[in-house]
């Protein structure tokens, strides 16, 4: 059910469309600006990231020079308003950037994803003028950010978090540990959730802007992962970490709302990451099938291989439609939460299936590190886990359809 302001906006849009009698544009047709933006990102991904994707995966480190280039290209501040040094773009553009990067390297994609669709988004939406003025110019130019919600004991049940915040004078003191924090090795700023009033349960959860240099803050162990290895994932240790009161984002007790609403949006971009990954795997499979010869012909001439490719292409297209629709709903101010959950759930399934089939089309070499599909297959697995597991997406969808 759509209600309230979103419904009003929908009616206005429908009335406008009826009056102009112009059909609504197809979901995958990009505007001029969107197409130019996508071309720029694609060129950067192919020319600058692709040559290093394997090396960064093996080393499990994202190159600093590429990170700097992503800032210079404006990829780390897509939605940040121009007055703060950002690109003044929209959420759909961020989704396009994540999708396009993921076709080449899903690690690069998630760095851009967390910065834009999570961290920047939170500060743009919930930050006060002072916080926007202090942090947005840095996030647009050279500071990487992380979103720190999960802990060892609270993943899907995120709001059971144990990190505590106690006020003493003009500061809060945070104690606890965060786990699985993307971008943490590179980040200078952490949007970190702690409970400032445990008696109030989840209504005590509060979002703090924690700078890496704050006393009592430390980035701990980095995980050694199956996939997206060049994207850092670390533990955070807070030992009476001092955070000034004016670094409370939103209000005390608003962290629950901030986290839920941010993750609802963020998962559209994870759907985009998985769609881009699947497209990358499909592109590699098509190119290989057209040149690999067996039985005196290319394997692309065998109907069995053609049917595999046809199914992969259809599933990638379906995932893209779900992702684009959810992103365009979000940018239009319409209800999108169910569509976002569907997009992430489906696209992560498609990514895993498509990458797996691509490995098979490559045959034996697909199973080696000499070809890129092996890496994409490993990278795909995370889609069904982070920003809400597939089961959590299905819970959201079921809640909606059951009323
Ligand atoms: C590479 C990586 C990067 C990450 N980045 C971040 C980050 O930047 N910031 C951050 O805060 N977190 C991050 N996370 C954490 C991530 O969001 C959690 O791992 C995820 O939400 C799952 O939580 P969990 O690992 O505790 O699994 P659990 O919650 O323990 O789930 C285990 C299994 O039980 C199932 N399950 C749990 N509850 C239910 C239920 N009610 N109904 C049905 N099934 C259920 C799950 O679907 C899953 O299959 C990251 C994780 C990884 C691996």
Can you describe this structure?
The protein is built from eleven helices and ten strands. The chain is an alpha+beta fold and 403 residues long. The strands form three sheets. Strands 1-4-5-8 form a four-stranded mixed sheet. Strands 2-3-7-6 form a four-stranded antiparallel sheet, covered by helices on one side. Helix 7 packs antiparallel against helix 10. The longest helix is centred in the C-terminal third of the chain and has 37 residues. The protein is globular and about 80 Å long. Bound molecules: flavin-adenine dinucleotide.
In short:
The chain is built from eleven helices and ten strands.
List keywords for this structure.
403 residues, alpha+beta, four-stranded antiparallel sheet, globular
First-to-last CA distance? 9 Å
Mean pLDDT: 95
- Total number of strands: 10
Alpha carbon gyration radius: 22 Å
Question: Structural class, from helix and strand content?
Answer: alpha+beta
What binds here, in terms of ligands, is: flavin-adenine dinucleotide
Q: How is the main sheet built? A: 4 strands, mixed
Amount of helix: 40-55%
User: How many DSSP H or I helices?
Assistant: 11
What is the molecular shape? globular
Itemize the secondary structure elements and their pairings.
Elements: H1 5-20, H2 32-59, H3 64-72, H4 91-102, H5 106-126, H6 129-141, E1 145-148, E2 164-168, E3 171-182, E4 189-195, E5 205-211, E6 217-222, E7 233-244, E8 248-249, H7 255-291, E9 293-294, E10 297-298, H8 303-331, H9 337-361, H10 373-380, H11 390-402
Parallel strand pairs: 1-4
Antiparallel strand pairs: 2-3, 3-7, 4-5, 5-8, 6-7, 9-10
């Amino acid at each position: 059910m759509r209600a309230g302001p979103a419904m009003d906006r929908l009616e206005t849009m429908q009335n406008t469309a009826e009056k102009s009698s112009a059909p609504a544009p197809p979901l995958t047709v990009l505007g001029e600006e969107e197409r130019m933006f996508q071309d720029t990102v694609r060129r950067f991904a192919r020319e600058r990231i692709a040559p290093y994707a394997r090396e960064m995966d093996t080393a499990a480190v994202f190159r600093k020079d590429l990170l700097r280039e992503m800032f210079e290209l404006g990829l780390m501040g897509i939605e940040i308003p121009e007055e703060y040094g950002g690109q003044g773009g929209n959420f759909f553009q961020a989704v396009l950037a994540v999708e396009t990067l993921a076709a080449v390297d899903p690690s690069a994609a998630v760095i851009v994803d967390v910065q834009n669709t999570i961290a920047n988004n939170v500060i743009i939406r919930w930050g006060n003028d002072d916080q926007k003025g202090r942090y947005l110019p840095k996030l647009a130019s050279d500071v990487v950010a992380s979103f720190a919600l999960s802990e060892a004991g609270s993943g899907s049940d995120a709001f059971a978090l144990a990190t505590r915040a106690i006020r003493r004078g003009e500061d809060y003191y945070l104690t606890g540990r965060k786990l699985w924090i993307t971008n943490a090795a590179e980040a200078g700023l952490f949007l970190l959730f702690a409970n400032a009033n445990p008696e109030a349960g989840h209504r005590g959860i509060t979002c703090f802007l924690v700078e890496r240099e704050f006393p009592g803050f430390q980035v701990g162990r980095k995980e050694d992962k199956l996939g997206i290895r060049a994207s850092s994932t670390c533990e955070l240790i807070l030992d009476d970490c001092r955070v000034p009161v004016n670094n409370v984002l939103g209000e005390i007790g608003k962290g629950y709302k901030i986290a839920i609403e941010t993750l609802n949006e963020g998962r559209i971009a994870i759907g985009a990451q998985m769609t881009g990954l699947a497209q990358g795997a499909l592109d590699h499979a098509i190119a290989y099938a057209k040149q690999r010869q067996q039985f005196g012909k290319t394997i692309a001439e065998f109907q069995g291989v053609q049917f595999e490719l046809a199914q992969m292409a259809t599933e990638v297209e379906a995932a893209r439609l779900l992702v684009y629709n959810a992103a365009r709903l979000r940018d239009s101010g319409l209800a999108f939460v169910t569509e976002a959950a569907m997009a992430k759930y489906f696209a992560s399934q498609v990514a895993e299936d498509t990458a797996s089939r691509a490995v098979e089309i490559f045959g034996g070499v697909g199973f080696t590190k000499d070809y890129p599909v092996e890496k994409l297959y490993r990278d795909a697995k995370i889609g069904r886990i982070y920003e809400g597991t597939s089961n959590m997406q299905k819970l959201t969808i079921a809640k909606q359809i059951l009323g």
